[in-house]
Amino acid sequence: MPLLTSPFAQLDLIRQPEQPNDPLQAFDAADEYLLSQLHAQALPADTRVLVLNDSFGALAASLAAQMQVTSNGDSHLAHLALAKNLARNGLPVDAVRFVPASEIPAGPFDRVLIRVPKTLALLEEQLIRLHGQLAPDAQVVAGAMIKHLPRAAGDLLEKYVGPVQASLAVKKARLLQVTPEARPAPVSPYPSRYRLEQPRLELLNHANLFCREGLDIGTRAFLPHLPTDLGDTRVADLGCGNGVIGIVCALANPNARLTLVDESYMAVQSARENWQAALGDRPADIRADDGLASQPTDSLDLVLCNPPFHQQQVVGDFLAWRMFQQAKAALAKGGELRIVGNRHLGYHIKLKRLFGNVEQVAATPKFVILGARKRN
User: Fold this and answer.
1) Same structural domain for residues 12 and 133?
2) For residues 204 and 191, is the Cβ–Cβ distance under 8 A?
3) CATH (domain of 170)
4) How many distinct structural domains can be found in the chain?
5) By CB neighbour count within 10 A (0-12 exposed, 13-18 middle, 19+ buried), where does 210 fall?
6) Do residue 239 and residue 162 come from a single domain?
7) Where do the Methyltransferase small domain residues begin and end (predicted)?
8) Do 173 and 204 have their domain in common?
9) Nearest Cα to 222, choosing from 332, 303, 119, 122?
10) What is the pLDDT along the chain (376 residues), one digit of tens a residue?
11) DSSP label at 18?
């Protein structure tokens, strides 16, 4: 894979999760453009830089040896990538302070570098949180590949930070340079909430949640087909989002032992708050993780999953396949993985290849609910 070469460093970077012969690299021209623009300012070594949404640590790792860097983002995989890439390039892991998106990074910051995220609600919340965190004469620069840079991103920067100047395009990347101005303290519209009728729940959703304004149709198809009469079964909601699948399962199975896992810090924050609201102090393991990568083998009896089919802007079934593999490793003999998926994704073929068996539990015109048992 090519090295990221910038005026600050030359780095060998990997993506997370790792794939054999991965054709995708861990940086792009927008990262290079942001670093080049920052270097042109000849900033002192004690410059305090906040990096937002650094997918695999390319920006933070490049600056780690020369500036005071804080990285803030919503992806646990991005956090893992940053730690691995720092170590991979001979830099101490604590050279960058990482703050999950469930927390607010504390300034003041002299420079803010933003990779524009796919979910603009996340960008909006991050810009709201910048209020009061910028040093005098601070600058904010957002970057993206042009094909992933919506006009609304510039509108949000203008609304919450200050006037925006768009750069010329370089290698199909563009920067939005922002001059901070005094703004009234903004009121965040996040988290949002929606109600579920059966069972009756109000669900809270922080800014980066998928289907933040209402239950997604895949989960809606899945909920009526969650198992009941589970006794003290050990159950995981894999890719839990706001926790709705795990919570509904827990309400129907008062003795079941639940684990809720997601790689999004805001998802985990939402799931914890929703669990508390619905189930009070009932114990549950709710955590940000790389799926079930750290789950002990043979430690679960049932895994429930509505798998994602994209990682940031990249669409594919790699993450789903990896989650299925993790589920099989974590399940005890006789345990079941039960999923919902779009019919056209062909998950039954993958499950049969992995488990040797697959059963169609239910179906709608658009979705199938599938179950696969671990035989050995």
Assistant:
1) yes
2) yes
3) 3.40.50.150
4) 2
5) middle
6) no
7) 201-370
8) no
9) 303
10) 789 999 999 999 999 988 877 788 999 999 999 999 999 999 999 999 999 999 999 999 999 999 999 999 999 999 999 999 999 999 999 999 999 999 999 989 999 999 999 999 999 999 999 999 999 999 999 999 999 999 999 999 999 999 999 999 999 999 999 999 998 999 999 999 999 998 999 999 999 998 888 899 999 999 999 999 999 999 999 999 999 999 999 999 999 999 999 999 999 999 999 999 999 999 999 999 999 999 999 999 999 999 886 444 444 577 888 999 999 999 999 999 999 998 888 888 989 999 999 999 999 999 999 999 999 7
11) -
- Going 300 to 304 to 310 to 316, the CA torsion angle's sign is positive
- 7 — phi, psi (to 5°)? -60, -15
Distance of CA 319 to the CA centre of its chain: 12
Choosing from 178, 201, 225, the residue where a domain stops is: 178
- Radius of gyration, alpha carbons of the chain: 22
Cis peptide before 2 (omega within 30 of 0): no
Shared domain check, 132 and 56: yes
Question: What's the Cα-to-Cα distance from 100 to each of 74, 80, 113, 290, 363, rounded to whole Å?
Answer: 6, 12, 16, 14, 38
**Do the Cβ atoms of 274 and 308 come closer than 8 Å?**
no
**Residue 177 bridge partners (DSSP):** 141, 165
In a domain, 185, yes or no: no
Question: How far is residue 354's CA from residue 358's CA, in Å, rounded to a whole number?
Answer: 10
CA distances from 365 to 220, 293, 304, 343, 368 (A): 13, 33, 21, 8, 8
User: Are residues 101 and 169 both part of a single domain?
Assistant: yes
**Domain end position, chosen among 127, 147, 178:** 178
- How far apart CA 320 and CA 325 sit, in angstroms, is 9
> Whole domain around residue 242: which residue ranges?
192-373
| Residue in this structure with the two tokens 């940000």, named with its chain if needed | 288
